[in-house]
């Protein structure tokens, strides 16, 4: 319990740790086509000015790839616009409707029967 409280106070989480607090929306989601490492957020300064970027983790962490960086605002704007275009595509609504109809048309599987079998076996074992 104490460890959980300390981790919670420090912003750690079982799923992603401190990355959940990152101001870089795409950290870990984009991979380099050459080395396969994920791009990660990085903030550099030059002459007092902040330059937030995404950098190739293969270069940054391991030095195994050529240095590639993309300005944060440029990459995030591109990604957000691509998501918007996809969501507003009229054919997407049709695809979703077709998928839901197909799911509803399927006959129920035997999962409830299988669940009863597992429950019966569990009760017989005396647990």
Describe the fold and architecture.
- It is a single chain.
- The protein is of the alpha+beta class.
- The chain has a domain of 88 residues.
- It is built from five helices and three strands; from the N terminus they run αββαβααα.
- Strands 1-2-3 form a three-stranded antiparallel sheet.
- The longest helix is centred in the middle third of the chain and has 16 residues.
- The chain is elongated.
- The model has no long low-confidence stretch (mean pLDDT 77).
List keywords for this structure.
127 residues; 3-stranded antiparallel sheet; 5 helices; 3 strands; 15% strand
- Give the SSE order as H and E letters: HEEHEHHH
Proportion of helical residues: 40-55%
Residue stretches low in confidence (pLDDT < 50, at least 5 long) are none
Number of strands: 3
Count of individual helical segments: 5
Strands across the major sheet, in which order? 1-2-3
Backbone shape: elongated
Q: What class would the helix/strand composition place it in?
A: alpha+beta
Mean pLDDT: 77
> Could you tell me how far the N terminus lies from the C terminus, measured between alpha carbons in angstroms?
27 Å
- From the alpha carbons, calculate the radius of gyration and give it in angstroms: 24 Å
- Note the main sheet: 3 strands, antiparallel
Percent of residues in beta strands?
Answer: 5-15%
Topology:
Layout: H1 2-9, E1 39-46, E2 49-56, H2 57-62, E3 69-71, H3 72-87, H4 90-105, H5 111-124
Antiparallel strand pairs: 1-2, 2-3
